[in-house]
Write a structure and sequence with these properties.
The complex is a heterodimer of chains A (393) and B (140).
Chain A (H helix, E strand, L loop, with lengths): L9 E8 L3 E2 L7 H16 L8 E5 L6 H8 L6 E5 L7 H13 L6 E8 L17 H6 L7 H16 L3 H15 L14 H6 L2 E4 L1 E2 L7 E11 H4 L7 E9 L20 H11 L8 E4 L4 H10 L8 H4 L2 H4 L13 H5 L5 H12 L11 E5 L7 E7 L5
Parallel strand pairs in A: 3-4, 3-5, 10-11
Antiparallel strand pairs in A: 1-8, 1-9, 2-8, 5-8, 6-7, 9-12, 11-12
Helix pairs in contact in A: 5-10, 6-10
Chain B lengths: L20 H8 L4 E5 L21 E5 L3 E10 L12 E8 L4 E6 L12 E8 L5 E7 L2
Antiparallel strand pairs in B: 1-2, 3-4, 3-6, 4-5, 6-7
The chains are: A alpha+beta (393), B mainly beta (140).
Chain lengths: 393, 140
């Protein structure tokens, strides 16, 4: 039996996004944002929007494919897919699902999209307004744990304790995003650089997370068009081939906090192995990395669980100079990411990974052949993906 | 039977459902109970009607000692909702001596002086609605 893999079978042919807004400031209804991003991605790919025959998203995006298809003039809807669970952890999962559909002949032109108008609907960072009534949350909510920042700070605190990691490591991750945002015309935080002093003096959100350890909340939309590798070769842009994509979590993740093996974790231990196996690369081959910062503590654990840094060396390694696009050992979050470009739920990390393969990022790393994305950590399922140039195949 | 102590923080009532009712009923009597699997003997958290270790139905409720250590914690400086006026408070997972780690607050302490590994014991804060929140305080 032939090896079953996505490696080199599918490529990103187009990317697009709306302008990015502070939450509540989008001038358009959320579905219009989704359509604008998809139209921009189609234009970037040089295809007629009516040709899009598949849609994949994540985190229960409210703008479903049938509604979008009606507006786009879709000739035929052949793939309508939602990555189930995990919120922003599903970004690369949607890429995996779309790629699998193309590779299996289910659809030919699939758009992965995410649209958010948090002002028009609920904000993520606020947590649920009504208490959940069953399972684990029923035991947690009375204690005043309401927001994702609180939930994930508990994981980060334990991880930092176990490995002797200090606040400065989190600061280094935040500094990298803000540093790169200063060159990125799309970035919300452009013109608002972060200094060590500013970080240290910022208020605590949930200790050990300062304000600058937490992602923004934004309005906007982004879209990525995937087609077969063969077809991508003749299209407008240099293809960014999908070398691999993986999703899921370890078997014990859902058991609850008492299950110590998985608590202080980004939940990538099995998923990182599966990704590298499919892509046939390791962390040393990765030229540039986008790692989803819902909170910097999640990036810290993701980097360790993907083999980019030993936990015991995190303090020493996670300083701005090592993470810069221009000459850093591990160029990280080169668009500014969720912290400083836009919280487009991590899809902006995938468009940036593609820019790095094309060679047109505002913070371009030299000679990129392998460009990786780690989507939202600490949830389940999580996901990740690797993109490559033709030379990487 | 231990009397529930007066709250020093808000004590919002939990949502009680058939699956977790035995747990909350016990808290009113000042007892911290844990589910123990009738099949494999493992003691689990959170309480549920099946065992997440072996997958079998059938759990007994056992009395916990009410002592443990801080496994991890986070300090919220400004809460929301019922905690809007609570002042700084500590969220924690406490590892009970029986094994499970449970979500709780660390109370009656200086929030800036607690550490992972500190020994703690349970106190109960009455919600006034037929339940009491098990919280923990440092043991000196």
């Amino acid at each position: 039996m032939a090896e079953r893999s996505l490696r080199g079978k599918v490529a990103v042919a187009g990317i697009g996004e709306t302008p990015y807004y502070k939450h509540g400031q989008a001038p358009d209804p959320e579905i219009v944002l989704a359509l604008k991003a998809i139209l921009a991605a189609c234009d970037d790919a040089g295809i007629d929007p009516a040709e899009v025959d598949g849609f994949a998203s994540y985190s229960d995006d409210r703008n479903n494919p049938t509604r979008l298809a009606a507006a786009l003039g879709t000739k035929e809807l052949r793939f309508s897919n939602m990555q189930w669970g995990g919120g922003g952890g599903g970004g690369s999962g949607a890429i995996a699902n779309a790629s699998a559909a193309i590779n299996a002949g289910i659809a030919d032109t699939v758009v992965v999209y995410r649209s958010l108008a948090q002002g028009q609907f609920a904000r993520f960072g606020q947590g649920p307004k009504i208490p959940a009534i069953a399972g684990d949350p029923a035991f947690n909510i009375p204690y005043g744990i309401m927001s994702p920042a609180q939930q994930y700070s508990l994981k980060a605190m334990r991880f930092m304790h176990e490995h002797g990691i200090h606040q400065t490591a989190l600061r280094g991750i935040a500094m990298a995003s803000y540093y790169h945002a200063q060159n990125n015309p799309r970035a919300i935080m452009r013109g608002r650089p972060l200094t060590e002093e500013k970080y240290d003096n910022s208020r605590w959100i949930s200790e050990p997370f300062h304000l600058y350890d937490c992602c923004m909340e934004n309005d906007g939309a982004a879209a990525v068009i995937l087609v077969s590798a063969e077809r991508a070769k003749d299209m407008k842009h240099k293809p960014a081939y999908v070398l691999g994509a993986a999703l899921g979590s370890d078997g014990g993740t859902g058991r609850g906090a008492y299950n110590g093996a998985h608590f202080a974790s980004s939940h990538f231990t099995s998923v990182s192995r599966n990704l590298y196996d499919m892509a046939k690369v390791g962390p040393k081959d990765v030229d540039v990395l986008q790692s989803y910062e819902n909170f910097t503590g999640g990036v810290l654990m993701s980097l360790v669980e993907h083999g980019f840094v030993e936990a015991e060396e995190a303090d020493e390694f996670l300083v701005l100079d090592n993470l810069k696009a221009d000459g850093g050992k591990l160029p990280l979050n080169t668009s500014g990411g969720n912290l400083a470009e836009c919280y487009m739920h991590g899809l902006e990390l995938i468009t940036e990974a593609v820019h790095q393969i094309r060679g047109d990022s505002p913070n371009q790393v030299k000679d990129v052949n392998v460009s990786m994305v780690i989507s939202g950590p600490m949830v389940s399922p999580v996901s990740n993906s690797i993109y490559g140039s033709e030379a990487s195949l | 039977m231990t009397e529930a102590t007066a709250p020093v923080m808000p004590a919002p009532a939990p949502i009680v459902n058939p699956e977790n009712k035995p747990f909350w009923d016990a808290t009113v009597e000042g007892r911290l109970v844990l589910p123990k699997c009738q099949n494999c003997g493992s003691i689990n958290w959170y309480p549920r009607v099946f065992c997440p270790e072996c997958g079998k139905f059938g759990v007994d409720w056992i009395d916990a000692a009410g002592t443990g250590t801080i496994y991890t914690f986070a300090i919220t400086r400004r809460g929301m909702g019922a905690y809007g006026k609570a002042g700084p408070y500590v969220l924690a997972y406490v590892e009970l001596d029986e094994g499970p780690r449970i979500m709780t607050n660390i109370v009656d302490c200086d929030v800036d002086s607690i550490n992972i590994g500190d020994k703690v014991r349970v106190v109960f804060h009455d919600t006034g609605s037929g339940s009491a929140l098990p919280r923990f305080t440092p043991v000196s």
